[in-house]
Design brief:
nine-stranded mixed beta sheet; single chain; Cytidine Deaminase, domain 2; metal ion binding; binds zinc ion; alpha+beta
Length: about 260
Amino acid sequence: MDIKQRPKTFQLIQNSFSTLLLDAIQYFPANKRRFQGETHGLLFGVGKDDGMLECDYVFPVGNVKSRTPDTIENDPKIDLAITSARSLLATSKYVGTYHSHPNKEYFFEWAYPSNMDISFAKYVKDPTMIIIALTRSGKLKQELQLEVRKDRAYQFSFNSKLDGHDLPDQVELGYDISYLFGSFLEYTFEMRAYSYNSKSLLNMNLLSSEAELLNQLGQYKIKVDTLSASDVFRLRKIEYNLRENNERRGKNTEYHLERLKPMDK
Ligand SMILES: [Zn+2]
């Protein structure tokens, strides 16, 4: 596929951001000495002509056959999930895979692809890939804190001389991309998106209307678990309006949020 035709921005809509985060947390290793709690799953959505890929559905596959500290090997379970989903899901298309990088502590390149991740992308013919790096940093269970951060874009290419766990060869592409960084409960996490061009993984912009909605709810001190069914319908409208490239983007967000605000006693 021509590089210009590939989507440049990956947007997590509906409940896709929260599903990715919850799945990565669920598989985070309970035993600190055994860092093998990676999770793996499939991403579904639809790419648009304007370079935007909207992901609206996430299918967790869970454990994979062989897990080592930071690799995922090919697994018939994933193959079967991809094949079955491709023939059954009609309103969303298979757009790629995700997996987590659970770590003992934060380091800057923790959500970069490993050498092995590039061979995996080649194996499943992944158009896109999301990597969620996370660590259990705090003791206190905290509410979601989230920010969109910027980094230089790179092209990551397989280096046969290096180990599967090593960072692959990197070439800077000369522009910036966005990624998501935040904390939730006692975890700190980072999500980055990549596209695959049949040779290398390249950074994409990663955005999320759902994450932005959750951020806004936090600012308005609105607790998700106290909302009624009619409130949820209001939130759906807000999330829809927060999608990037939506002509109504951000419209009426404040109006709707004011109506959800907890009453002053
Ligand atoms: Zn990886």
